[in-house]
Amino acid sequence: MAAAHVGLLSSAPPSTALYRHSLRRLRRPPPIISKSNSTSPPKTMANKHHMIQSRLMFFSPKTCMASMSEDPIREWILTEGGSTGITKITPVGGGCINFASRYDTDVGPFFVKSNRRIGPEMFEGEALGLGAMYATKSIRVPRPFKASFLRFGGSYIIMEFIEFGASRGDQSVLGRKLAEMHRAGKSEKGFGFDVNNTIGSTPQLNTWTSDWIEFFAEHRLGYQLKLAQRQYGDSSIYEKGLRLIKNIGPLFEDIVIEPCLLHGDLWSGNISSDKNGEPVILDPACYYGHNEAEFGMSWCAGFGGPFYSSYFEVMPKQPGFEKRRDLYMLYHYLNHYNLFGSGYRSSSMSIIDDYLRMLKA
């Protein structure tokens, strides 16, 4: 994954920015107290002068700058973020991989995710994906501001804090907005993305490829099959899966496939709405691919008839859509098998066997 430093959209966020973030309240440093058991005032002017000088050292610009540089999250918020003070830091639940917080400031809240165990690649990929989706001006996503290293190990991402509403919003609006993003987000480089990223915690390879079938076979299904063989010694699913990916060509006959910007991991946990009811999508695994691949997580996304009707009004359904739907689900079932174990193996194998029979492979 590219190790380029990401400093996305570094202009200060608007004061009404919405989303989830936080940090440590700036406190007045404690007075320096002698280790003697005396609590009475200093008996000499020399001692008094020494205490005043010691206290001033806490507030010297050099000391304050050193403290900020040890916390790059605070440093960004108090410089490029346009804030003069962080008033509150609140943990935000919901994730199982990263630590999330809301940082309240005088210019509005920020949302911060951090992880002490990983380098910045995962968050850099997320920031670039959010930035690409944000640039389409279609569906609402958190605006990314910064992703980089933590000073003593790990990494972080700072983004807009969006105040969520009480529901996931209108399914028909979600379908239309998602289709507008797919229509607006195109790539002249082919299928892939500028960096590799992650799907859950699994690496997702995004090497630019001119042919969609080749890309999906090698960098999606093929990678997951190799991972299953390496991780579980599962030669059966590996060998059958290889037979499948060598024979998927007929499923794509008589259709035009354009590289569309995909969220890449669109399940119910990554779909919400803001306080105005507008749909919001977050935590992406972006790449440019066949728009139908976006529905690969539909088995746990809750998409209904109104969603698909609105989507296809903007992005018309192509011949053979139903025949390809399970193929795109297979990628995510295999990923769940590799992430969470054997509970997802039977679903993966069932899809592979059904396609082998259908394609007579």
From TrEMBL:
Catalytic activity: N(6)-(D-erythrulosyl)-L-lysyl-[protein] + ATP = N(6)-(3-O-phospho-D-erythrulosyl)-L-lysyl-[protein] + ADP + H(+); N(6)-D-ribulosyl-L-lysyl-[protein] + ATP = N(6)-(3-O-phospho-D-ribulosyl)-L-lysyl-[protein] + ADP + H(+)
Short name of any one Pfam family annotated for the protein: Fructosamin_kin
EC number(s) from the headed UniProt entry: 2.7.1.172
GO molecular function terms listed in the Swiss-Prot or TrEMBL record: ATP binding; kinase activity; protein-ribulosamine 3-kinase activity
Any one annotated GO CC term: cytoplasm
Keywords: ATP-binding, Kinase, Nucleotide-binding, Transferase
SUPFAM superfamilies named among the record's database cross-references: Protein kinase-like (PK-like)
Function: Initiates a process leading to the deglycation of proteins. Phosphorylates low-molecular-mass and protein-bound erythrulosamines and ribulosamines, but not fructosamines or psicosamines, on the third carbon of the sugar moiety. Protein-bound erythrulosamine 3-phosphates and ribulosamine 3-phosphates are unstable and decompose under physiological conditions.
Protein family (similarity comment): Belongs to the fructosamine kinase family.
Name used for this protein in its record: Protein-ribulosamine 3-kinase, chloroplastic
